[in-house]
């Protein structure tokens, strides 16, 4: 109950403070991709229930019908700013501010045994696994077989981190994770901005 009250209160405050900025980002994503600036995708939530997650659109359809991440899209992803619209998911009750990241069907919904404890909580905008793998896209880009590496190395580690988070949950740790996420995102944004000067 305390976690939900905190999620609801902070998401409302953040949307009131930064809703205008999110709308500007959505407009920028629309100009960048020539598609609706908000991207929606089905993800697996608490108890295996599917819901639609909101993100800033970062990919553009190319003439050969391939989807490519745009230059601005790379910035959204590197800085995690593409996750800002998920404050709406928190407001709607589909997500929490902190928790295991929601995945597409075929991963978390296929967990067995005590690993399924991950489905007992709401997924989060950020979490211990998100911080641990903050450079996940860069890490995968270095692999000869990214899908195999994700399934055999990254995914098992995420499961381990998320199970530990749930088993050792505390409100204090949630606050620390949020602060670390903000610092990480701000630092990445600053470095990305400097590199484009």
UniProtKB/TrEMBL annotation:
| Entry-linked Pfam families | Bac_transf
Q: Which InterPro entries match?
A: Bact_transf (IPR003362)
- A Gene Ontology MF term for this entry? phosphotransferase activity, for other substituted phosphate groups
UniProt KW Transmembrane helix keyword: yes
Q: Is Transmembrane among the key words of this record?
A: yes
- Keywords, ordered alphabetically: Membrane, Transferase, Transmembrane, Transmembrane helix
Limits of the Bacterial sugar transferase domain? 3-185
Q: Where are the transmembrane segments?
A: 12-31
Family statement drawn from the similarity comment of this UniProt entry: Belongs to the bacterial sugar transferase family.
Q: What is the name attached to this protein's record?
A: Sugar transferase
